[in-house]
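GyrI-like domain-containing protein
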Amino acid sequence: MKFEWRKKAKNLYLPKNKPELVTIPKFNFFMIHGEGNPNSEKYSEAIGVLYSLSYAIKMLPKKGITPEGYFDYTVFPLEGIWDLAEEARGLSTLNKDKLIYTIMIRQPEFVTDTLAKEVIQIVKKKKTHPLLHKVKFKSLEDGLCVQMMHLGSYDKEPESFSIMEDFCIKNNLNRISKTHREIYISDPRKTKTDNLKTVLRFKVEKGK
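Structure:
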């Protein structure tokens, strides 16, 4: 039976538009680290590389390659961990050129480090890309987090983060990192700005 994350992992990818506490287990990702404006061509190219690899994994059986433990699934959504360069923190307006990011796409459990390297080579032979050498395959475990669904423009995310911070205060939770994760449920190329859905998440610990 096909694994569809929208149905089988709603708690991780389709939370309500109000804060909640959740524990995120370890997952494997293809990822690219970078910095600069997410509206840039470089950022778009990085996204393209991640999707090329992700679909290459999914389509392996059609090439006569069936990895051990393979199962049919829907490709997972794009995610990003966001930070800001030290010199840009504390400014009254966000300088997007100073953003630091790691964008990634989760891979199914059957994808091993060896298989990931093989698929990178397969994609490289099909179409060389200057960013392929920057791709990493790593496991990440976020653990205890606060998350909520943000509806609308990315530029209005601070409003949702404010709600999440209030939730932490009321529930004796401390945010433990200035970075945060975003999961892009909507495709901004096909979705009106007001209808965009983005999961916002940051790590917390219980207060003493």
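Helices lie at 5-8, 10-13, 41-58, 113-126, 157-170.
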